[in-house]
Amino acid sequence: MSLGVTEKKLDNLHWPLVLCTLIICSLGVWNLASATKNAPVIMALVQFRWILVGGLFIALLLLADYRWLQTAAWPGYVAAIGLLAGVAFAGKKVLGARRWLQVGSMQVQPSEFVKLAVIILLARWFARDETG
User: Fold this and answer.
1) Mean of all residue pLDDT scores within the chain
2) pLDDT per residue over 89-108, tens digit each?
3) What is the dihedral of CA 79, 85, 86, 90, to 10 degrees?
């Protein structure tokens, strides 16, 4: 991708939304630190690390050509539904509800992936060309 395309994408970025997002993230870290009794700095640093990971992911998506999502919409949706079905067989019970999958040392909730997959699939559906 050329530098001109990247500059154009940055020029078209909605900077007030970026500022609001940064403010909300900062307030979230501050709230977490103030509400944590033991080791508030450690909890805030962990949260800040995940904010940085998310920011890097967003930067990669910003620089990438988003049109690949059109071809990935259906496979992504099917994979997300497969993960959701996998909860019935390999799901971990937490507080009496089986909603989590164990992935290494992490637990993930497949319903979050389904939400994203539905949004991408519906965007593809509404963007389809109906002429002809």
Assistant:
1) 87
2) 888 777 777 788 888 888 88
3) 170
